[in-house]
Amino acid sequence: MKAAGSLVGILLVLAVSAAAAQQEDAAGGALPLVEIAEARWATAVDPGSRQPAAVLNDARARRPLMLWMRLRASEAALARLEQAGRLPIRHRWFRESFAGVQAEGQTEMTDSIALSAGSRELLAALRQEVSARGHFDWRTWSAKARPGPGRWSVAVVYADHTPVLCDGGKPCRYSITVK
């Protein structure tokens, strides 16, 4: 009976901790758990260096399009993210307009892609990097093979769909025009 009570207490602490982290991040009351140190639109990523190979300001329709980013987080942040079930981080791709015509408030989410950083398969590698360096510094990306013309954006969210926060406590969102 005592063991069951201890287990319930541990589960309650984890649930409260996860809820508090979510409220803290949503309210902007704390520093973001994950820092997006860099973000670049590209057509390709060099497999050896894991760096964007061809950086873009505008993209061409029906050509590969990637949002590459370098993520950083501390050991404490990684532990909080794991405990709260907020990994892996996701890229939610939206097509905001079609061929340059945008209806007010109209968007279409086309994909929600789990990033490799924070995936179950790579958590051990993240933990190893955190123990060696005190933080992790990972390069990751998601891609659209042949996006059509229009305005595209990517919202960066945790696994529970709450936004990853960027500068000023605002949700991280990146946009590009595909012509």
Spans where pLDDT lies below 50 across 5 or more residues: 2-29
Order of helices and strands: HEEEHEEHEEE
How many strands, which pairing sense, and closed or not: the largest β-sheet? 4 strands, antiparallel
What structural class is derived from the secondary structure elements? alpha+beta
Number of helices: 3
Structure commentary:
With 179 residues, this protein is α+β, with helices and mostly antiparallel strands. The protein has one domain (2-178). The chain is built from 3 helices and 8 strands. The chain has helices at 2-27, 75-83, 123-133, and strands at 35-42, 55-56, 65-74, 90-95, 108-114, 135-144, 150-157, 173-178. Strands 2-1-3-6 form a 4-stranded antiparallel β-sheet. The protein has a 4-stranded antiparallel β-sheet with strand order 5-4-7-8, with no helix packed on it. Residues 2-29 have low confidence and may be disordered.
Explain briefly what this protein structure is.
The chain is an alpha+beta fold and 179 residues long.
Q: What topology does this entry show?
A:
Layout: H1 2-27, E1 35-42, E2 55-56, E3 65-74, H2 75-83, E4 90-95, E5 108-114, H3 123-133, E6 135-144, E7 150-157, E8 173-178
Antiparallel strand pairs: 1-2, 1-3, 3-6, 4-5, 4-7, 7-8
Keywords summarizing the entry:
alpha+beta, four-stranded antiparallel beta sheet, 3 helices, 8 strands, disordered N terminus
